[in-house]
Give the backbone structure.
Amino acid sequence: MPPRTLASLAHALSVAPDLDAALVALGEGLAELDRTAQIALLHYDARRDMIRDRVQPIDGRIDRLSVETTFDHLPQSVRGSVTTGGQFIDVQEQPSEFGRMFGLRMLPEEAFLALRGLRFDGGLVAIIVMYEAKKFFGTRATERVAPAVALFELAYARFAEREAREEAVRTLEDVTQRVHEEYIRKLGAMEKELFETKEHAARDAGGTVDGERFLALEKELARSAEQLRKATRRADAVEHQAGAAVGQLEQAHIELHRRSENLRAKTRTLYLIERVLSIDAENDDPQQLVDGLLALVGNDMQAQRCSLMLRAPEPGALFLAAARGVAPNVQMGARSTIGKGVAGLVAANREPILVEDVTEAHGHPLLKDAFFTAGSFISFPLVYHDELVGVVNLTNRAHEGVFLEEDIERVKLLGLVISLVASHARLPERLIDLIGAR
């Protein structure tokens, strides 16, 4: 799946309100790869060892079908790998028959059927089914959609964790309510019977049988009170266990969110790298290429003012190759001395500079810049094979945002790819000639 689709899918899954919406987003991602391929989700009931039902996204809606078949119906060679999860396993034996059993639309030609188990809380909870026609050339849709399914698995775990937490809360409330109702019922019955016995004993003071019955009722009341205390302790224990389980689920949710954010960041980086390479492949004009590279970095970092400076032919100098949001009197090709100013220091040291709060950087050149309106900036070098290619400057982050330390790691990899493209496209030499010709 192209990184651009992965990035959009990651966003769609993060905002999906429920599992159906997440599955629809996954189905739309598959449709961009292969409109004939099908994907579905099988819910697995571990207590009964049954595949309960099939849920399939079709044209932006969800289609449900009750399957109610045992897990043992799957081939023995497949069951173990599906239970382990983590990758798609091909069903070699009669794939079309299993596709029909799962209620998939039959394909007219020979087809592949692949299964991937989804695990939660240490056990198998669902199975992803991929059904696609065999092709003589090209990569299978199952292989191309695998990264998207990995994203969906994170979303599935998030919904499963939320459902488990809600179920724990419901169970605790039900147990507490039952214990309380039983307590009220027994206590009321005992008090009523004791009251009736006392009245009867008062009317018949000489009756030894009623006196014995009165003592027996008092003992029964005491025994019921003790049983109630034990039941209350059991309810407290259940409440404690449920509270601990909810706490563990919350910690798991935090860890899942952290992994999801890391995966989303990596997906975004892959998308940016793909866009850099696409810009390089689509543009032969050096000015369009350098403008496209700068726009990509500026948009991703939300920088309203940014510039790209490349190594000048004369020693110890950089020249302005592309910019946006700069002063109107700044001309393309303007020189900057290496070792002086922000870009010059970054070029000399070949290390990025990050200022989160410019008011603390006394005497900084950007403080005198009327176009500098935000309190943070970042400048990083472009180096390829230990040779300086140029410097990228980013500032005026949108909505008065602040560049942070993690942004450094984000731009380092992107800067390396831009350095590679600039070097192979000979951008410094070609742009100097182009600017001189103007």
